[in-house]
Amino acid sequence: MYTTKDVSRLTGASLEQLRRWHRSGLLQAERQGRRLMYGFRELVAARAALALFDRGVRQAAVREAVEAIRDWRPDIDQPVGALKVLTESNHLVIQLDDLNIEPDSGQLVFGLSVDRAGQRRHQVLELGIKTPEPTPSITVDQLMTEGLEAEASGATERAETCYRKVLSLDPKHPGALLNLGNLVFADGRFRTASELYRAATRVAPGYASAWYNLANAQDEMGDSKAAIEAYRQALNLDEKYADAHFNLALALEKQGQRPEAQSHWRAYLDLEPEGPSAVIAQAFLGSELST
Prior knowledge:
single chain; 291 residues; alpha+beta; Multidrug-efflux Transporter Regulator, Chain: A, Domain 2; Serine Threonine Protein Phosphatase 5, Tetratricopeptide repeat; three-stranded antiparallel sheet; globular
């Protein structure tokens, strides 16, 4: 939570502007004693409102933009240094880590970039947009092939570049979303991976792997409840998805839901009766039987 002075310091809005926006209902705050305390989304909304008003955008459009930010639901609340607000005219894009997201639709936007030097210099909410460089005349299929070959040879940075170029040409390419998600997941960027996987579930809701990978990212971020639901969705699409049974069973065990976990341990063993993971499943079943 942020005080009015915190919001002023971090966004550049004056105290009087913030008080006026609160009185008008543009910003929402909780009163704690004599202080007004603002949440993270209100901090983002204040920065966006200031930028839009400075550009002469009409009040109704600013209010719509603020409502879009307020309704935005990332997997977890973000530290200030990890996020930027990009604006062009009255169009807003939120940059979370190295992904650009439209808060009103939740869609990923590719082809935008911000000044990395400025990000390192200030580490606060900033504004800035650059015109994307022309895309060379290369097809999506060629880029996907190049990315897959780079990934197979261990050139992960090159592979990531190729997948991002694919998405700049076709933002709804499920293979590129999943492959890029897998690369950043392996690099420990679970939040970025989760947004890519979530985008894949939107464009290909029948793709069990997208739900499974989303669940893995959510589990890594500590959101077991959301992970369990995503694992279940993967199994609704493919009941023979052995790894989904295994990981769902683990997640259920962590939540203390042992009877349901037991059924998924059994399902996993029916599909994969041998191997190290089978030994783990058998051990969990053995502990159930011994209790």
